[in-house]
Amino acid sequence: MRSVFRFRRPGAIAGLILSAACLPGRAEIDSFSHTVQPLVEKHCVECHRGAKAKGGVNLTGFTNTASLYRDPRLWENVVRQVEERTMPPKDEEQPSEAERLHLRDTLTALLDNPDPQLLPRDPGARVLHRLNRTEYNNTVRDLLGVTTRPADRFPADGGGGGGFDNNADTLFVPPILMEKYLAAAEDILVAAPPDRLWISQPAWFRSDRETAARNLAWFARRAFRRPVDPGEVDRLLGIYQSARREGTGFHDAVLTAYKAVLVSPHFLFRIERERPGGKPWRLDGFELASRLSYFLWSAPPDEALLAAAENGSLSEPAVYEAQVRRMLRDPRIQALAESFTSQWLGTKTLQTTAQPDRNRFPIFTDSLRDAMAAEPVEFFASLVRDNGSVLSLLDADYTFANAELARLYGITNLTATNLVRVTLPDRNRGGIVGMAAVLTQTSYPLRTSPVLRGKWILEEVLGTPPPPPPPLVATLPPDDRVTEGQTFRQRLEAHRKNPNCAACHSRLDPLGFALENFDPVGRWRTEVDGRPVDAAGTLSNGDSVAGPAQLKEALLVRKQLFVRHLTEKLLSYALGRGLEYYDIPSVKSIVRQVEADSYRMDSLILEIVRSYPFLWRRGESTPTTASTGENSSGPTLSALPVRVSGGIVSQ
User: Fold this and answer.
1) What is the pLDDT of residues 250-267, one digit of tens each?
2) Which long-range contacts (CB under 8 A, 24 or more apart) does 298-301 make?
3) Count of Cβ atoms closer than 10 Å to residue 552 Cβ
4) Residue 421 is inside which H or E element, if any?
5) Disulfide engineering: 550 pairs with which of 11, 336, 441, 545, CB 3.0-4.6 Å?
6) Mean pLDDT, the chain, as a whole number?
7) 228 forms bridges with which residues in the sheet?
8) Share of residues in the chain with pLDDT > 70 (%)
9) Is 546 exposed, middle or buried (0-12, 13-18, 19+ CB in 10 A)?
10) CA 122 from chain center: how many Å?
11) Alpha-carbon distance 28 to 34, whole Å?
12) CB 240 within 8 A of CB 216
C-alpha cells in the first residue's frame, strides 16, 4: 500500500522559496544553517553526498531554512532516524546526546511552525470528486430509499493516495461508466418507493407545470446537496415539457427530468465552486456539509446538516462540533469503520488475496474468513461509538468475534453467530497486530512470513516503510517445515547475512518474529514442525522483544509514531487525496491535540474536521477538472454531457 504522502519538488514553489531566502533580515534567524547544517556535515554527508549517496538521499544541497522546505518529508524522516538512533549507523561515530536533542528540537520547530513567507499555507488542490461505488449506493439509499446497490455493477474504483478508493485523483470517468449511470438512473426510479418521489401531486388549483416545478426543485436540492437556482429548475422543466409534448403523462414526464438529475455532474460529483482571485478560500456551509457527511457516513448530508448549512449556523464552532458529535453517534458512522479500517489495514481484499492451504488448515472456511474481515471493522466502530482511546488499536483486552472466530482464538464458551464483544484470556491477542485478518493477510498459503508481517507493522502501524527490496533477491521456500535439519527461521537468518538484505531485514524480521506464535491463519501455536517457536528478536534500536505481548509494549513506547501515522491515514481519507509536504503542520497540530485529550477517538476526528486542509480549499487559476484516466486532466464540468431519452442535456 502506498504512503499517504506524495511529495514532489515543485519548481514554482522551489523558486518562491529560494527567492524568499534572499529577503532582507532573514539571515539572523536561520537556525538551519546555524545548528542543523554543521551537525549534518559532521555526521551525515560522508555517506549522503553526490550521485552515489546512500539510499538516494543527498543532503549536500540543503544549506539554509529555505532549502529545508524543498523537501520537508525528507527532514521529517531525518528527525525519526535521529530519535530512533538508527542513523548514523552503529559502526560510525555517533553524535552526543546533546547534539541529538539539539538537532531534533531545531528541525522539529522548523517543520512544525514553517515561516509563511518561505512555505505559504496551502489547503491543497482538489479535482471534481466523483462519488465512488460505496458513496453512490449510500446516496441513492438516503435520497430515494433504494437498497439494491446499483453501483456494485459499475467498474471498480481505483485506490489512490493512502490506498483509499475515495481518492479524487483516481476516480476516473471512463465512457462505459456514463452508460452505467444511465441504466442505473432508470433502475433506481423504478425501484424507489413512490412516497419518496413526490412532494406535490397535481391539483385543480395548481397547473401541472407548477406542480412539476415544485417536485423538481425539491428533488434537485436533495440530489445536488445544496439549493438550486431558478435557471437549473427551468432547464429541468424543459425536459419535463419536452416529454409532455411527446405525449408522456405527468408522472412519467417528471421522472424523465428526475433521470436527468441522477446523471447530472451535480449529483455524480461533489462539486466545490470556484471563487475569483486565486487565493485559498473557506468552504461554504453546503460544501462543508458534504465534506463532513461523505467523510463520516460515505453518504449525503441529512436534513439536519443541510438546515444548519442553509441558516448559516454550521459556521459557528459550537454548532459545528455539535453536528459532528451527533454524526459520530449515528448508525451511519459504521460506513467510516467499514471503508476506512479495511483499506488502512489491507484486509478489504481478504476474500480474494488470502489463500491459506485448506488441506493444511481445514479450519479456514469462507465463514471464518468473513468473520476475520469483520473483526477490525467492528473494533474500530466500537472505538468511535464509545469515544475510546486510539491506543486500544495497539493493545486491548477485548475484541469482537462470533463462535467460529472465538474458537480460533481458543475461546470455547461463545455461541453467537454474529460478532459480539468478548474478553480475551491473555495479552497476546488484543489489538490489530493480533487479529486473524491481519495475520492471515501477511502469510503465505503454507507458512507465515516474518518479512511480510514486519513490513506491515512498519508501513501500517508505525508509518516508517522500508525501501523496496533490491533486484534478484533469492526467494525463500514456500513451506515452514524443517528441511535438512534447519527450521525456517534458521534459513531466514542465513538469508539475512547477504549484505544487500541485512539493513532492511534487521528492521523487518524482529517485528515479524515476535508474531511467530500465530500460524498462517492466526491460530496460536507453540511448535512448528515439532520444533519450539522462536519468537525472540532484537529491534533496530537495541530493544529485545519475545512474543506479541512484548511487541505491543514496544509499539506503545512508539505510540507517537502510531498516532501520527493513523492521523495521516484518516486525514487522507477525509480529504479524498494523498497528503503533501504542506500538510505536515496540520498533521502535527492534530496529533498534539489528540495527545492532550488522552488519545480519544472523538478528539482525533474533531481535530481533523477543524483542520485547515479540511475547512479550506486552494484557489485555482484553471478550471476544476474531473479525472478521465490520466492524472487530473479531463473535461471541465461544463463539458460533461448528460444523455436523456435520446437527447443530450449539458449541465
Assistant:
1) 999 999 999 999 999 999
2) 298/134, 298/135, 298/138, 298/166, 298/335, 298/336, 298/339, 299/135, 299/138, 299/139, 299/141, 299/142, 299/332, 299/335, 300/138, 300/139, 300/142, 300/143, 300/222, 300/225, 301/225
3) 23
4) strand 420-423
5) 545
6) 86
7) none
8) 86
9) middle
10) 20
11) 9
12) yes
C-alpha cell at 269: 460529483
| Packing angle of the helix pair 285-296, 601-610 (nearest 10 deg) | 150
Q: Which residues pair with 532 in a beta bridge?
A: 527
Q: State how far the alpha carbon of 396 is from the alpha carbons of 429, 554, 607, in Å.
A: 8, 15, 24
Strands 536-538 and 544-546: antiparallel
Beta bridge partners of 512: none
Name residue 270's beta-bridge partners: 129
Residue 147 and residue 141: Cα distance in Å, rounded? 6
pLDDT at 377 over 90: yes
Strand ranges in 487-628 using DSSP code E only, listed in sequence order? 527-528, 531-532, 536-538, 544-546, 616-617
Closest CA to 524 of 365, 373, 411: 411
DSSP string, 285-341: HHHHHHHHHHHHTSS---HHHHHHHHTTGGGSHHHHHHHHHHHHTSGGGHHHIIIII
Kindly state the cell numbers that stand for 88: 548514523
b/e burial code for range 484-499 (CB count within 10 A of at least 16 → b): eeebbbeebeebbeee
Rounded CA gap, 32 and 62, in Å?
Answer: 9
- Cα 635 to chain centroid distance, Å, stands at 26
Question: How far is the C-alpha of 629 from the C-alpha of 169, rounded, in Å?
Answer: 9
Nearest Cα neighbor of 507 from 465, 555, 463 is 465
Instruction: Enumerate residues 6+ apart whose C-beta is below 8 A from 517.
Output: 428, 524, 525, 526, 533, 535, 547, 548
Phi then psi dihedrals of residue 333, to 5 deg: -65, -15
Give every CB contact of residue 151 below 8 A, 6+ residues apart in sequence: 132, 133, 134, 136, 137, 184
- Residue 545 sits at φ, ψ, to 5 deg, of -135, 145
Kindly indicate the confidence band of residue 124, based on its pLDDT and cuts at 50, 70 and 90: confident
User: Is the pLDDT assigned to residue 622 strictly greater than 70?
Assistant: no
pLDDT of res. 324? 98
Residues 616 and 126: their CA atoms lie apart, in Å, by 11
Work out whether the CA dihedral 201, 202, 208, 214 comes out positive or negative: negative
Omega before 585 within 30 of 0, i.e. cis: no
Whether this prediction's pTM lies above 0.70 is answered by yes
Burial 303-342 (b: 16+ CB within 10 A, else e): eebbebbbeeebeeeeebeebbeebbeeebbbbbbbbbbb
